[in-house]
Fold this protein.
Amino acid sequence: MTTTRRNFLRGSALVGAAAVASPAIAQSKPMTMKMQAAWGGGIFLENAQSYVNRVNEMSGGALTIELLPVNSVVKTSQMQDAVHRGVLDAAHYVPAYWYSKSKTASLFGTGPCFGWSSQEVLGWVNYGGGQELFDELMGTLGLNVVSFFNSPMPAQPLGWFKEEITDAGQMEGLKYRTVGLAADVLLEMGMSVVQLPGGEIQPAMKSGLIDAAEFNNPTSDRDFGMQDVSKHYHLASFHQSQEFFEVTFNKQKYEALPAELKAILKYASEAENSNFYWHNTKRYADDLVKLSDEQGVNVYRTPDSVMAKQLEAWDVVIGRISAEDPFFAKVVESQKAYAKDVMNYLNLNQPDYKLAYKHYFG
Protein backbone atom coordinates (compact mmCIF):
# COMPACT_ATOMS: atom_id res chain seq x y z
CA MET A 1 0.00 0.00 0.00
CA THR A 2 1.46 3.36 -0.97
CA THR A 3 1.98 6.22 1.48
CA THR A 4 -0.63 8.27 -0.35
CA ARG A 5 -3.18 5.45 -0.12
CA ARG A 6 -2.45 4.89 3.60
CA ASN A 7 -2.91 8.61 4.29
CA PHE A 8 -6.17 8.63 2.35
CA LEU A 9 -7.57 5.65 4.26
CA ARG A 10 -6.41 7.06 7.58
CA GLY A 11 -8.09 10.38 6.75
CA SER A 12 -11.27 8.60 5.68
CA ALA A 13 -11.37 6.69 8.95
CA LEU A 14 -10.99 9.90 10.96
CA VAL A 15 -13.77 11.58 9.00
CA GLY A 16 -16.02 8.56 9.51
CA ALA A 17 -15.31 8.48 13.25
CA ALA A 18 -16.04 12.19 13.52
CA ALA A 19 -19.34 11.73 11.72
CA VAL A 20 -20.35 8.92 14.07
CA ALA A 21 -19.29 10.96 17.12
CA SER A 22 -20.93 14.18 15.96
CA PRO A 23 -23.45 15.40 18.54
CA ALA A 24 -27.14 14.67 18.14
CA ILE A 25 -27.76 18.41 18.21
CA ALA A 26 -26.46 18.66 14.65
CA GLN A 27 -28.77 15.89 13.50
CA SER A 28 -31.91 16.99 15.35
CA LYS A 29 -34.87 18.49 13.55
CA PRO A 30 -34.87 22.26 14.21
CA MET A 31 -37.26 23.28 16.99
CA THR A 32 -38.84 26.58 17.97
CA MET A 33 -40.05 27.69 21.40
CA LYS A 34 -42.15 30.72 22.21
CA MET A 35 -41.11 32.51 25.39
CA GLN A 36 -43.15 35.40 26.79
CA ALA A 37 -41.39 37.95 28.96
CA ALA A 38 -42.96 39.94 31.77
CA TRP A 39 -41.38 43.05 30.30
CA GLY A 40 -42.78 45.31 27.60
CA GLY A 41 -39.51 47.10 26.94
CA GLY A 42 -36.55 48.63 28.72
CA ILE A 43 -33.49 47.00 30.19
CA PHE A 44 -35.23 43.84 31.48
CA LEU A 45 -36.52 43.00 28.01
CA GLU A 46 -32.94 43.52 26.80
CA ASN A 47 -31.80 41.04 29.47
CA ALA A 48 -34.40 38.49 28.38
CA GLN A 49 -33.31 38.92 24.76
CA SER A 50 -29.68 38.43 25.79
CA TYR A 51 -30.51 35.03 27.28
CA VAL A 52 -32.49 34.07 24.18
CA ASN A 53 -29.64 35.17 21.90
CA ARG A 54 -27.18 32.97 23.78
CA VAL A 55 -29.43 29.94 23.39
CA ASN A 56 -30.07 30.58 19.72
CA GLU A 57 -26.41 31.13 18.89
CA MET A 58 -25.12 28.13 20.85
CA SER A 59 -27.72 25.76 19.44
CA GLY A 60 -26.54 26.36 15.88
CA GLY A 61 -30.07 26.45 14.54
CA ALA A 62 -31.22 23.28 16.30
CA LEU A 63 -33.33 25.35 18.72
CA THR A 64 -34.72 28.84 18.25
CA ILE A 65 -36.46 30.71 21.05
CA GLU A 66 -38.81 33.46 19.91
CA LEU A 67 -39.13 36.13 22.61
CA LEU A 68 -42.52 37.80 23.01
CA PRO A 69 -43.05 40.99 25.07
CA VAL A 70 -45.45 41.33 27.99
CA ASN A 71 -49.14 40.48 27.38
CA SER A 72 -48.46 39.05 23.90
CA VAL A 73 -50.34 35.83 24.69
CA VAL A 74 -51.44 36.07 28.34
CA LYS A 75 -51.23 38.58 31.17
CA THR A 76 -48.21 38.48 33.47
CA SER A 77 -50.24 36.92 36.28
CA GLN A 78 -51.21 34.06 33.93
CA MET A 79 -47.77 33.30 32.53
CA GLN A 80 -46.87 30.41 34.81
CA ASP A 81 -50.21 28.69 34.20
CA ALA A 82 -49.75 29.20 30.45
CA VAL A 83 -46.35 27.47 30.58
CA HIS A 84 -47.78 24.72 32.78
CA ARG A 85 -50.57 24.05 30.24
CA GLY A 86 -48.31 24.37 27.22
CA VAL A 87 -49.99 27.50 25.88
CA LEU A 88 -46.53 29.05 26.18
CA ASP A 89 -43.35 27.02 25.86
CA ALA A 90 -41.46 29.26 28.27
CA ALA A 91 -41.55 32.47 30.30
CA HIS A 92 -39.07 35.05 31.58
CA TYR A 93 -40.12 36.75 34.84
CA VAL A 94 -39.48 36.69 38.60
CA PRO A 95 -40.94 34.33 41.25
CA ALA A 96 -42.57 37.25 43.05
CA TYR A 97 -45.02 37.47 40.14
CA TRP A 98 -46.64 34.15 41.06
CA TYR A 99 -46.04 33.96 44.80
CA SER A 100 -49.79 34.14 45.45
CA LYS A 101 -49.80 30.37 44.86
CA SER A 102 -47.25 29.85 47.61
CA LYS A 103 -45.49 32.41 49.74
CA THR A 104 -42.49 30.08 49.71
CA ALA A 105 -41.97 31.13 46.08
CA SER A 106 -40.95 34.57 47.27
CA LEU A 107 -38.04 33.04 49.20
CA PHE A 108 -36.50 32.31 45.81
CA GLY A 109 -35.51 35.88 45.07
CA THR A 110 -37.51 38.30 47.21
CA GLY A 111 -37.16 36.80 50.64
CA PRO A 112 -35.57 38.02 53.88
CA CYS A 113 -31.98 39.21 53.94
CA PHE A 114 -29.79 36.97 56.07
CA GLY A 115 -26.83 39.22 55.46
CA TRP A 116 -26.43 38.04 51.88
CA SER A 117 -26.86 39.45 48.38
CA SER A 118 -28.46 37.99 45.26
CA GLN A 119 -25.14 36.37 44.35
CA GLU A 120 -25.13 34.27 47.52
CA VAL A 121 -28.81 33.37 47.18
CA LEU A 122 -27.99 31.96 43.74
CA GLY A 123 -25.08 30.14 45.37
CA TRP A 124 -27.61 28.57 47.74
CA VAL A 125 -29.85 27.64 44.80
CA ASN A 126 -26.99 25.87 43.02
CA TYR A 127 -24.88 24.49 45.88
CA GLY A 128 -26.92 24.76 49.06
CA GLY A 129 -29.96 22.67 48.20
CA GLY A 130 -32.14 25.51 46.94
CA GLN A 131 -32.82 24.03 43.50
CA GLU A 132 -33.92 20.75 45.05
CA LEU A 133 -36.28 22.60 47.38
CA PHE A 134 -37.69 24.59 44.48
CA ASP A 135 -38.27 21.40 42.49
CA GLU A 136 -40.00 19.93 45.54
CA LEU A 137 -42.24 23.00 45.69
CA MET A 138 -43.11 22.61 42.00
CA GLY A 139 -44.06 18.98 42.64
CA THR A 140 -46.20 19.90 45.63
CA LEU A 141 -48.03 22.52 43.57
CA GLY A 142 -48.42 20.08 40.68
CA LEU A 143 -46.78 22.44 38.22
CA ASN A 144 -45.53 21.04 34.92
CA VAL A 145 -42.51 23.36 34.68
CA VAL A 146 -38.71 23.34 34.85
CA SER A 147 -36.99 26.56 35.94
CA PHE A 148 -33.52 28.08 35.92
CA PHE A 149 -32.50 31.22 37.81
CA ASN A 150 -30.10 33.89 36.64
CA SER A 151 -29.06 37.54 36.81
CA PRO A 152 -28.43 38.40 40.47
CA MET A 153 -29.86 41.89 40.93
CA PRO A 154 -28.45 44.59 43.19
CA ALA A 155 -30.54 45.49 46.22
CA GLN A 156 -33.62 47.36 45.09
CA PRO A 157 -34.13 51.00 46.12
CA LEU A 158 -36.66 51.84 48.78
CA GLY A 159 -38.05 54.03 46.04
CA TRP A 160 -39.78 57.29 45.33
CA PHE A 161 -41.50 59.47 47.95
CA LYS A 162 -43.02 62.93 48.17
CA GLU A 163 -40.45 63.94 50.77
CA GLU A 164 -37.15 62.72 52.16
CA ILE A 165 -37.63 59.78 54.53
CA THR A 166 -35.54 60.20 57.67
CA ASP A 167 -37.63 58.10 60.02
CA ALA A 168 -39.72 54.94 59.61
CA GLY A 169 -42.70 56.75 61.16
CA GLN A 170 -43.04 58.84 57.99
CA MET A 171 -43.92 55.69 56.06
CA GLU A 172 -46.92 54.73 58.17
CA GLY A 173 -50.18 54.93 56.25
CA LEU A 174 -48.59 55.61 52.88
CA LYS A 175 -50.04 53.78 49.87
CA TYR A 176 -46.99 52.04 48.43
CA ARG A 177 -46.31 49.77 45.46
CA THR A 178 -44.22 46.63 45.84
CA VAL A 179 -44.54 42.87 45.16
CA GLY A 180 -43.92 39.50 46.79
CA LEU A 181 -43.25 39.05 50.48
CA ALA A 182 -42.09 42.66 50.59
CA ALA A 183 -45.80 43.50 50.64
CA ASP A 184 -46.20 41.61 53.93
CA VAL A 185 -43.13 43.31 55.41
CA LEU A 186 -44.24 46.83 54.57
CA LEU A 187 -47.77 46.11 55.74
CA GLU A 188 -46.18 45.11 59.04
CA MET A 189 -44.47 48.52 59.06
CA GLY A 190 -47.84 50.26 58.75
CA MET A 191 -47.94 50.97 55.02
CA SER A 192 -50.89 50.31 52.72
CA VAL A 193 -49.53 48.16 49.91
CA VAL A 194 -50.68 48.00 46.28
CA GLN A 195 -49.21 45.43 43.88
CA LEU A 196 -49.01 46.84 40.33
CA PRO A 197 -47.16 45.88 37.13
CA GLY A 198 -44.15 48.07 36.35
CA GLY A 199 -45.81 50.04 33.57
CA GLU A 200 -48.67 51.13 35.84
CA ILE A 201 -46.52 52.54 38.66
CA GLN A 202 -45.85 56.03 37.36
CA PRO A 203 -49.45 56.74 36.26
CA ALA A 204 -50.70 55.47 39.62
CA MET A 205 -48.40 57.82 41.52
CA LYS A 206 -49.22 60.70 39.19
CA SER A 207 -52.96 60.23 39.74
CA GLY A 208 -52.61 59.84 43.53
CA LEU A 209 -53.64 56.19 43.59
CA ILE A 210 -50.37 55.54 45.44
CA ASP A 211 -48.15 57.84 47.50
CA ALA A 212 -44.82 56.09 47.02
CA ALA A 213 -43.36 53.27 44.97
CA GLU A 214 -40.41 51.11 44.08
CA PHE A 215 -39.72 48.98 41.02
CA ASN A 216 -36.15 47.75 40.77
CA ASN A 217 -33.36 50.06 39.60
CA PRO A 218 -32.48 53.58 38.39
CA THR A 219 -32.61 52.68 34.68
CA SER A 220 -36.11 51.19 34.76
CA ASP A 221 -37.33 53.94 37.09
CA ARG A 222 -36.01 56.60 34.73
CA ASP A 223 -37.59 54.84 31.73
CA PHE A 224 -40.93 54.80 33.55
CA GLY A 225 -40.63 58.56 34.17
CA MET A 226 -40.63 58.37 37.96
CA GLN A 227 -38.56 61.58 38.05
CA ASP A 228 -41.61 63.39 36.67
CA VAL A 229 -43.79 62.50 39.68
CA SER A 230 -41.22 62.64 42.50
CA LYS A 231 -37.87 64.25 43.23
CA HIS A 232 -37.04 62.16 46.31
CA TYR A 233 -35.35 58.83 45.54
CA HIS A 234 -34.09 56.52 48.27
CA LEU A 235 -31.48 53.85 47.50
CA ALA A 236 -30.78 50.83 49.75
CA SER A 237 -33.45 48.74 51.42
CA PHE A 238 -34.03 45.29 52.92
CA HIS A 239 -37.55 44.92 51.52
CA GLN A 240 -36.15 43.34 48.33
CA SER A 241 -32.43 43.21 48.84
CA GLN A 242 -31.95 40.20 46.59
CA GLU A 243 -33.77 39.08 43.45
CA PHE A 244 -33.09 37.38 40.11
CA PHE A 245 -34.91 36.26 36.99
CA GLU A 246 -36.68 32.93 36.63
CA VAL A 247 -36.60 31.32 33.18
CA THR A 248 -39.24 28.60 33.16
CA PHE A 249 -40.08 25.95 30.56
CA ASN A 250 -42.96 23.57 30.03
CA LYS A 251 -41.63 20.37 31.58
CA GLN A 252 -42.83 18.00 28.85
CA LYS A 253 -41.36 20.14 26.09
CA TYR A 254 -38.12 20.55 28.01
CA GLU A 255 -37.74 16.83 28.68
CA ALA A 256 -38.38 16.04 25.00
CA LEU A 257 -35.25 17.99 24.05
CA PRO A 258 -31.93 16.26 23.34
CA ALA A 259 -29.46 16.36 26.22
CA GLU A 260 -27.30 18.90 24.36
CA LEU A 261 -30.16 21.39 24.07
CA LYS A 262 -31.11 20.93 27.71
CA ALA A 263 -27.53 21.75 28.63
CA ILE A 264 -27.59 24.87 26.47
CA LEU A 265 -30.74 26.17 28.20
CA LYS A 266 -29.06 25.65 31.57
CA TYR A 267 -25.61 26.98 30.78
CA ALA A 268 -26.91 29.97 28.84
CA SER A 269 -28.71 30.87 32.06
CA GLU A 270 -25.48 30.60 34.03
CA ALA A 271 -23.58 32.68 31.46
CA GLU A 272 -26.22 35.39 31.65
CA ASN A 273 -25.33 35.88 35.35
CA SER A 274 -22.05 37.58 34.47
CA ASN A 275 -23.40 39.46 31.48
CA PHE A 276 -26.27 40.87 33.52
CA TYR A 277 -23.95 42.20 36.21
CA TRP A 278 -21.50 43.78 33.78
CA HIS A 279 -24.20 45.21 31.53
CA ASN A 280 -26.75 46.42 34.06
CA THR A 281 -24.45 47.80 36.75
CA LYS A 282 -22.95 50.33 34.33
CA ARG A 283 -26.36 51.32 32.99
CA TYR A 284 -27.76 51.77 36.51
CA ALA A 285 -24.80 53.91 37.52
CA ASP A 286 -25.06 56.10 34.42
CA ASP A 287 -28.80 56.62 34.81
CA LEU A 288 -28.47 57.47 38.50
CA VAL A 289 -26.10 60.30 37.51
CA LYS A 290 -28.61 61.50 34.89
CA LEU A 291 -31.46 61.44 37.41
CA SER A 292 -29.43 63.52 39.84
CA ASP A 293 -27.47 65.88 37.60
CA GLU A 294 -29.84 66.37 34.66
CA GLN A 295 -33.32 65.83 36.10
CA GLY A 296 -33.05 67.35 39.54
CA VAL A 297 -33.72 64.23 41.59
CA ASN A 298 -32.56 64.22 45.21
CA VAL A 299 -30.86 60.88 45.80
CA TYR A 300 -30.56 59.63 49.38
CA ARG A 301 -29.33 56.51 51.09
CA THR A 302 -32.14 55.06 53.19
CA PRO A 303 -31.31 55.61 56.88
CA ASP A 304 -30.07 52.61 58.85
CA SER A 305 -32.87 53.20 61.36
CA VAL A 306 -35.47 52.56 58.64
CA MET A 307 -33.67 49.42 57.47
CA ALA A 308 -33.46 48.17 61.06
CA LYS A 309 -37.25 48.48 61.27
CA GLN A 310 -37.50 46.47 58.05
CA LEU A 311 -35.49 43.64 59.61
CA GLU A 312 -37.79 43.67 62.64
CA ALA A 313 -40.79 43.45 60.33
CA TRP A 314 -39.14 40.56 58.45
CA ASP A 315 -38.77 38.69 61.75
CA VAL A 316 -42.50 38.99 62.38
CA VAL A 317 -43.43 37.93 58.84
CA ILE A 318 -41.02 34.98 58.78
CA GLY A 319 -42.25 33.78 62.17
CA ARG A 320 -45.90 34.02 61.24
CA ILE A 321 -45.63 32.23 57.89
CA SER A 322 -43.26 29.58 59.25
CA ALA A 323 -45.79 28.71 61.93
CA GLU A 324 -48.45 28.27 59.25
CA ASP A 325 -46.35 26.50 56.61
CA PRO A 326 -43.74 23.85 57.55
CA PHE A 327 -42.25 23.84 54.04
CA PHE A 328 -41.72 27.61 54.20
CA ALA A 329 -39.93 27.09 57.51
CA LYS A 330 -37.81 24.32 55.96
CA VAL A 331 -36.64 26.61 53.15
CA VAL A 332 -35.86 29.44 55.57
CA GLU A 333 -33.71 27.15 57.74
CA SER A 334 -31.84 25.91 54.67
CA GLN A 335 -31.14 29.50 53.64
CA LYS A 336 -29.99 30.49 57.12
CA ALA A 337 -27.58 27.57 57.33
CA TYR A 338 -26.00 28.50 53.99
CA ALA A 339 -25.85 32.24 54.72
CA LYS A 340 -24.34 31.76 58.18
CA ASP A 341 -21.27 29.94 56.88
CA VAL A 342 -20.78 31.66 53.54
CA MET A 343 -21.30 35.19 54.83
CA ASN A 344 -19.08 34.53 57.83
CA TYR A 345 -16.23 33.87 55.40
CA LEU A 346 -17.08 36.78 53.10
CA ASN A 347 -17.53 39.28 55.94
CA LEU A 348 -14.18 38.31 57.43
CA ASN A 349 -12.39 38.28 54.11
CA GLN A 350 -13.79 41.26 52.17
CA PRO A 351 -12.11 44.60 52.80
CA ASP A 352 -14.21 47.71 53.34
CA TYR A 353 -14.60 48.88 49.76
CA LYS A 354 -16.15 52.16 50.94
CA LEU A 355 -12.83 52.97 52.62
CA ALA A 356 -11.00 52.64 49.32
CA TYR A 357 -13.71 54.57 47.45
CA LYS A 358 -13.51 57.48 49.88
CA HIS A 359 -9.72 57.44 49.65
CA TYR A 360 -9.84 58.09 45.92
CA PHE A 361 -13.11 59.92 45.34
CA GLY A 362 -13.99 61.55 48.66
User: Anything to note?
Assistant: The longest helix spans residues 259-293. The longest strand covers residues 145-153. The chain is about 50% helix and 15% strand.
